[in-house]
TrEMBL record:
Function: Catalyzes oxygen-dependent 5-hydroxyuridine (ho5U) modification at position 34 in tRNAs.
Originating species: Neorhizobium phenanthreniclasticum
Annotated catalysed reactions: uridine(34) in tRNA + AH2 + O2 = 5-hydroxyuridine(34) in tRNA + A + H2O
PROSITE patterns according to UniProt: RHODANESE_3
UniProt KW Oxidoreductase keyword: yes
Protein name, UniProt field: tRNA uridine(34) hydroxylase
Amino acid sequence: MTDNLALSRPETTGAFLVAALYHFARFDRYESFRAPLQAFCDENGIKGTLLIAREGINGTVAGTDDAIARLLAYLRSQPEFAKLEHKESRASKMPFLRMKVRLKREIVTMGVEDIDPNRIVGTYVDPKDWNALISDPDTIVIDTRNDYETAIGIFKGAVDPKTKTFREFPDWVKNNPGLHNKPKIAMYCTGGIRCEKATAFMKEQGFEDVYHLKGGILKYLEDVPQEESLWEGACFVFDERVSVEHGLTEGPHRLCHACRNPISAEEVNSPYFEEGVSCSHCYHTRTEEDRLRYRQRQHQIMLAKKRGEKHIGG
């Protein structure tokens, strides 16, 4: 694994600091660590989701600068997470409704036994060197994210597997023998964690020259100037900001709370869009009974908003 990065604070403004973090490590005491970690976050006003498993930790959280600094120090004080890496961005409002620390079998679910990025993994590529690699005609570039993420942004020339979940990725690889046609495989994801397992899997499948973007799309958008960028669109993030763009500024997308797909400003103007009820992605896959239920939920959300409260269902 790589050493911890001394990351500069993002230049974008926002009252809340958002930290995306992960670390693969043998963590046998993960079950007993859940309660103290939940309590620490609650005591410091931190919200978000942290997943812990025998293979490590993964998640995204938000809070004040001091609170996030305390959390990172607390996590790195654990011997297993001393080299934990994180990436920072800003949010104008708290992007999470609650704090959840969850016990999982995997911190990113691929569903393949014995994939251990601590044992075998692809070659890390810094954002400053990424353009040269993916512009090389001997390189196949693969986006390891899911279809609702790739729909709003992707690297120029990248292959989109159009997976619904990360569990589908291993079968996609096995069903695409053409991936062996070029000597180099370059892979990327949002923050780097999926590529840890994806590149490990590719190496196990016999691919030799396998690379992945260090820090993921988020680090690329932070480090690479927009005028030099090969990134097209916005990057989906798993919080209420929905997407971020170059410089990690908040993107223009909203989330359809019926199907959880990101929707653009143009899609908001679609006749199929109804706040909290439907959008062009899900209108034809939902029944009128579904939409009635969603309207009732949306009504409760709006009533809570008028009272100055947050409705958990929103």
